Amino acid sequence: MNEPRISRRRLLASAAGLVATPYVITTAALGNAEQTPASERVTLGHIGTGGQGGFLFRMFQACKGCQSVAVADCYSDRREAYARMCGGKAYRDFRELLARKDIDAVVIATPDHWHVPIALAAARAGKDTYVEKPLGVTVEECLTAKRVFAETGRVFQYGTQQRSSSHCRFGCELVRSGRIGKVHSLEVVAPDGGSGGSTQVVPVPPNLDYEMWCGPSPVRPYTPDRCKPPGTYWIYDYSIGYLGGWGAHPLDIMVWGCDADIAGPLTVEGTGIIPTEGLYDTVYHWDMKIEMAGGVKMSFKPGGDSTKFIGTEGWVRIWRGGIDAEPKSLLTSKIGPGDVHLVESKNHYQNFIDAVKSRKPPVSTLEDAVRSDLISQLCNIAVRVKRKITWDPKQGTIVGDAEAARLMHRDMRAPWTL
């Protein structure tokens, strides 16, 4: 089967247009008396309403049993526009939104460097959270999130929407049910990053609170490409590039389909390009090799967006638009009573709302988000230190390499902390 073209850019472009184009929200979408009584609705706050954040806002308006009541964004026009759409209140500072006792959960779709700091603040404020991928910009952020959410007991849904696609679940169930035998190889590909970006210093737009936008990251001179894609994905102050930003999707399918990454220590090595000119400075053109416990070998390279599990009796390859396998009979087989059944979700956003109400784990858990994000983080570190590194999942650290271990942490600009 041929893998279809990635459609996320078109998706983001259409979502970004929401600020300029009026969006009609029906009373049914807001959860009127004919749908869910007000006392039983999950009240939502939206933090970050750019391209993906605007798309998520729209998706949640169509969910049953919830109501959006507040919006926080560093861009004044965005927050005011989306607040008007839901009849809620707009905030420049997300902390004011989190202080509201009447908000049950938040949807976080900021640039990457804000994902974990805001999620931690939300959990400590008693809010359940939907967090866009990738998870963090450091290993330390990932591990801190895992600890804080366990301590607070808050629900966490990760923005890896492919888990709510039936073919992705089916493929992972085939692998976990032993239909391809023992897995010995994994091949993961994700869209590549790039170089460039204007370094020309220009005035900060009057509608942007740039100080708040930078948050825990350094405040650099403002440039035209800094606060918008792909700058938000390809500048190291805010991200680790598409190793995490796009890698999160196929790597998430990898951890959904097998547990080789947590079976014991693993090693990571490879190459990549780090631009030295222009604004963008995250790793691209990477070529990573990972050896996991039990002799499982994984490759991670730029390409489309797919995950291939190779076993002793066949293989299964999953991507956003489809699934392929060998033998072909696997594609028409059934997952029976004795097989592994994964959490079923037909709508990623409704799944989060339902989890908030039931307090049951959603389809994309924080535990798995940490697992996939750690692979991205370790690849980034290995490229930057230019050598093989070893990760011990039991100790939760890089072992035998003090320089590499230091890269698990980044200093945060005051007053921000984890």
Quickly list its features.
418 residues; 15 strands; Rossmann fold; alpha/beta; 33% helix; 2 domains; Dihydrodipicolinate Reductase, domain 2; globular; 15 helices; single chain; 19% strand
3D structure, described in words:
There is one protein chain. The protein is an alpha/beta fold and 418 residues long. It folds into two domains: 155 residues, Rossmann fold (3-Layer(aba) Sandwich); 218 residues, Dihydrodipicolinate Reductase, domain 2 (2-Layer Sandwich). It has 15 helices and 15 strands. The strands form two sheets. The chain has a nine-stranded mixed beta sheet. A six-stranded parallel beta sheet has the order 3-2-1-4-5-6, sandwiched between helices. The longest helix is centred in the C-terminal third of the chain and has 20 residues.
Compact overview of the structure:
The chain has 418 residues and is an alpha/beta fold. Helix content is 33%, strand content 19%.
SSE diagram, text form:
Layout: H1 8-16, H2 27-30, E1 42-47, H3 51-61, E2 66-72, H4 76-86, E3 89-91, H5 94-98, E4 105-108, H6 112-124, E5 128-131, H7 139-152, E6 156-158, H8 166-176, E7 183-190, H9 210-214, H10 231-234, H11 242-245, H12 248-257, E8 266-273, E9 284-291, E10 297-302, E11 306-311, E12 314-319, E13 322-326, H13 348-358, H14 366-385, E14 389-392, E15 397-399, H15 402-406
CATH architecture assignment of the largest domain:
2-Layer Sandwich
**Mean pLDDT, as a whole number?**
93
What's the alpha carbon Rg, rounded to whole Å?
21 Å
**Unreliable segments (pLDDT under 50, ≥5 consecutive)?**
1-34
Would you state the CATH class of the largest domain?
Alpha Beta
What is the fold-level CATH name, i.e. the topology of the largest domain?
Dihydrodipicolinate Reductase, domain 2
The CATH superfamily label of the largest domain reads: Dihydrodipicolinate Reductase, domain 2
Report how far the terminal alpha carbons are from each other.
Answer: 44 Å
Main sheet characteristics: 9 strands, mixed
User: Which percent band covers the strand fraction?
Assistant: 15-25%
Number of DSSP helical runs: 15
Give the number of DSSP strands.
Answer: 15
Task: Please state how the strands of the largest beta sheet are arranged side by side.
Answer: 13-12-11-7-10-9-8-14-15
* Structural class designation: alpha/beta
Total individual domains: 2
Helix content: 25-40%
Tell me the overall shape: globular
From N to C, what is the helix and strand string? HHEHEHEHEHEHEHEHHHHEEEEEEHHEEH
